[in-house]
């Protein structure tokens, strides 16, 4: 097949110097990685035949080479092709290589195939593949950063001069690539510092524990550029059982998923309080099957979250692909874990104080303030058409029992009736101590008929409760349904139910006499 690029005029020494000087100026002015790869390709194609072209970067610590850019007959693209760097003669020997005919390939079914004779990659598809190539290592300060390769669909188009010229381009490209990578790292760290500062402010101002955990997860996803992150908190079960409290990203773990970390993870995370790195999840024996079924391989890191001198949880981050999390990544996760721990403590303390402010300390039911807030919300919904009814309960002659048997007995009666209401209450409804011996049940999506049935169930259970039965307790009840045509406020609804309760109390005059004679 005739290549799309015409044969290049062989430059002499002076021309070669000018070509490399021009390339050096162009590449030195380019700091964006994507733009840099495009420029390396364009400048190489100006100097040598490059119907096919690619750039691969090499991670020496993992012996992993990955193609970051390739062009085939003028069309540029990205390909996710990785291989062991030591499998490449060019990277292993650190010397440029010329092949003028018969590259030889192992078909992978992709437009890019691996070569059997030492070239890193061969472009083309099926039987139509490049047959000649020159490939040169990019070396900077003694370290092989990767390789660049120009290829042709025609045999015998390259000379040793072309190979020398490509090596000169590769030397310049190595400096430019190193600068671009360092610039990208600086930009990443700047973004990380700004984000950490923003997250710190956001976390310290947030008072909802669930929102705090969600922000910590979002920060880990953003700064570390991972596919998934989660906060695991110590559960209520014996041992070191951690439970997912918040999760996000493409690898989203189900909330409530549990992991007993006793063993090696306990030693590192809890006893030594150090982060854990799992370079290859698929090969790790530390992850139980229950957790592994929600993962797709790749790599992960975890950092302990501490509060009041103990480990309260673990912040984890993971990627779908096998990835080497370095010390900088681990440091970011540790800082996020520390910030998250402090913010979570503050939020939980605020939640506890808030709960005390809206909870009746004797019965542990919501108090009048919480009832008012809840009713305001429910009445607003009822104005839009949702059914709403309430039931008001009063313990008959409670003062008599209190004065006769003492305040401790009176408290026991109030707590016993609160138990009855809690037992009969649906999760979506609210029961509250209105004040003294009066209680209110708010029944959402319930009409008068359903409310009457509820009241009868409460009275029946109260009649059989050991404590209430011992004192001969009777209760009166009143019900009301919100009517937007007759009621304007929460108090209108309460007054209607209160009036109905007094009618119920008046309909049983013997109750007072029985209570007095008890």
Short description:
The chain has 518 residues and is α+β, with helices and mostly antiparallel strands. It has 15 helices and 21 strands. It has helices at residues 13-28, 33-47, 89-93, 160-205, 209-224, 264-271, 289-292, 327-357, 368-383, 398-405, 407-424, 448-464, 466-470, 490-506, 510-517, and strands spanning 52-59, 64-72, 75-77, 82-84, 97-99, 105-106, 112-115, 122-125, 128-129, 132-140, 143-152, 228-234, 241-249, 258-260, 276-278, 299-307, 310-319, 388-395, 430-435, 438-444, 475-481.
Structure overview:
- It is a single chain.
- With 518 residues, the protein is of the alpha+beta class.
- The protein has three domains: 13-183, GAF domain (Beta-Lactamase), CATH 3.30.450; 206-356, Beta-Lactamase; 368-517, Reverse transcriptase/Diguanylate cyclase domain (Alpha-Beta Plaits, 2-Layer Sandwich).
- Helix content is 44%, strand content 24%.
- The strands form four sheets. Strands 1, 2, 3, 4, 5, 10 and 11 form a seven-stranded antiparallel β-sheet that branches. A six-stranded antiparallel β-sheet has the order 14-13-12-17-16-15, sandwiched between helices. Strands 6-7-8-9 form a four-stranded antiparallel β-sheet, with no helix packed on it.
- Strand 7 and strand 8 form a beta hairpin.
- Helix 10 (398-405) crosses helix 11 (407-424).
- 38% of the residues are buried.
- Residues 1-7, 105-120 and 511-518 have low confidence and may be disordered.
